[in-house]
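Aim 2, interim progress: modelling of the zinc ion-bound target.
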Amino acid sequence: MSLPPGFIDELRSRLSLGQVVGRKVMWDSRKSNQGKGDLWAPCPFHQEKSASFHVDDRKGFYYCFGCHAKGDAFNFVQETENVGFMEAVEILAREAGIALVLDETYRDFHSADGPPHGLFADPGWADTLIHLYSFSKAYRLTGHRVGALLASPARLAQVEKFLDTVTICPPQLGQHAALWGMEHLQDWLAAERREVLARKRAMVTGLNRLKGWRCLGAGAYFAYVEHPYDIPSPELAKLLVEKAHVLVLPGTMFRAPGDPAGLRELRFAFANADAAGLDTLMGRLAALG
Ligand SMILES: [Zn+2]
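Predicted structure of the complex, ligand included:
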């Protein structure tokens, strides 16, 4: 699952935490200073009569001096609506009137057994959600780029207009293959998912056993990793090819230009490596010393 870069910041900047919280509490008008975005109310997270729950509307943070509950608009919605992060994002995107474009290209390989989120269970999902999916990953249609876009009929009509300006007749070969895959390959896909998740586990545990290396995050195909060396990642990536015969991308390719974090990070693509291959990889990394 991934969101467009900067989406969370954009959403935050368009929301007033005072408005979000204001639907759940009664502001204490004597203690609050609306003009300054300095808002007080009895806390929604613990029982009290006085107003020890504070919202700093300009900074977008809340804090309770009674029970020490604290956070931002996303935390507040998660806590008060009892939902996960993605559901909170969807609720706030709807409130801000902006579409939530959710890229779920890899959803077939999600580690949770149920649906990765509950957004489609909301009958009103199509107002806000635009879901992207790729059959190419699930059914190995690499190169065919067969995907799906789920949105409201009104939005789909606009997408169709755009598509019509760039493609008169989309190639159907991959679409037939994807349809056949959906109709016949569910067991095969379930086994693929187990294999992909086993590789991911082998990758994460292998990396975390190496001295000084740290796996910062891993999905179905890629692991994002902190390396232990005093060498900038673009140089280290070259060294890894020469000394260890391991090809990875430096973190600087994934961070904003000038962000020092990228220098300490590498991205590994491991989807094509089986258990023996990953063992070899860990052996080569360990041998670097
Ligand atoms: Zn409280």
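Residues 43, 45-46, 53, 64, 66-67, 69 surround zinc ion (CB under 6 Å). The first strand starts at residue 38 and ends at 41.
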